[in-house]
Design goal:
The chain has two domains: 3-128, Carboxypeptidase-like, regulatory domain (Immunoglobulin-like); 131-210, Immunoglobulin-like (Sandwich), CATH 2.60.40. It is mainly β and 212 residues long. The longest helix has 10 residues, at 3-12. It is built from two helices and 17 strands. The protein has helices at 3-12, 38-46; strands at residues 53-58, 65-70, 73-78, 84-90, 93-100, 104-106, 113-115, 120-124, 127-129, 132-138, 149-153, 159-163, 169-172, 178-185, 189-198, 204-206, 209-210. 9% of the residues lie in helices and 43% in strands. β2 (65-70) and β3 form a beta hairpin.
Length: 212
């Protein structure tokens, strides 16, 4: 790498055109394996070799319908099990994303954003679940168990945590529907037999737990 290359890089990485190296593994996007240096990539970009871009949108809501409005009109895609959708070969321009799913609320309207040629860009369009799990943790004799952390986790290792109050009651909000195992800290990590299922048609799930 020589001095001329460094000056060239400064000229091609304009502050108004952010560039992300993370997870840019699609063909035509910069990554360590496909390009000998970032200089090479930006020379290609400046020459027009990478006219399109990749966009990933995260909703944290599996199955959400994501609508993307941009230069070529409206595009739609359903979020995968991670709540994420991806578009490749998008034209540069101004885009706006909207996510929707029954029993989920949007934090706030998403702002329009600029997508640049050659970019691998990440945007958030978070939706928040209205599903809640609530219940009480008790001893075998029926006494409430206060100040204990309760965790629900699923096969994808997505977890939710809450602490019991002085009555042993707990509340876990913003949960996605699905089946969950239960874990507690009392005083060491313990599993509780059984499974809690949050059903898609039931916004509140009651789960009264008993220590073994």
């Amino acid at each position: 790498m020589n001095k001329g290359d460094l000056l060239y890089l400064e000229q091609t990485t304009r502050p108004t055109e952010p560039f992300s190296m993370r997870a840019c593994n699609a063909t035509g996007l910069y990554n360590e394996k496909e390009h000998a240096s970032r200089i090479q990539y930006f020379r290609e970009l400046d020459a027009g070799a990478h006219p399109t871009a990749t966009l990933r949108i995260n909703t944290i809501a599996p199955g959400a319908l994501i609508t993307l409005q941009g230069p070529t009109g409206q595009l739609q895609q359903q979020a995968n099990s991670d709540g994420t959708a991806e578009w490749k070969s998008l034209l540069p321009g101004v885009y706006q994303a909207h996510a929707a799913l029954q029993h989920y609320d949007s934090e706030k309207p998403t702002e329009p954003f600029q997508l640049h040629a050659g970019a691998c860009q990440f945007q958030q369009a978070h939706l928040f679940s209205r599903y809640v799990v609530r219940g009480t943790l008790r001893t075998p004799s029926g006494q409430p168990v206060p100040n204990v952390t309760i965790s629900l986790y699923n096969a994808a290792q997505r977890s939710y945590e809450a602490e019991t109050n002085y009555r042993g009651a707990f509340k876990l909000p913003y949960i996605n529907p699905g089946k969950y195992r239960v874990r507690i800290q009392f005083p060491t990590r313990k599993e509780i037999d059984g499974e809690i299922e949050v059903r898609p048609n039931q916004l509140e799930t009651e789960a009264n737990l008993t220590l073994k």
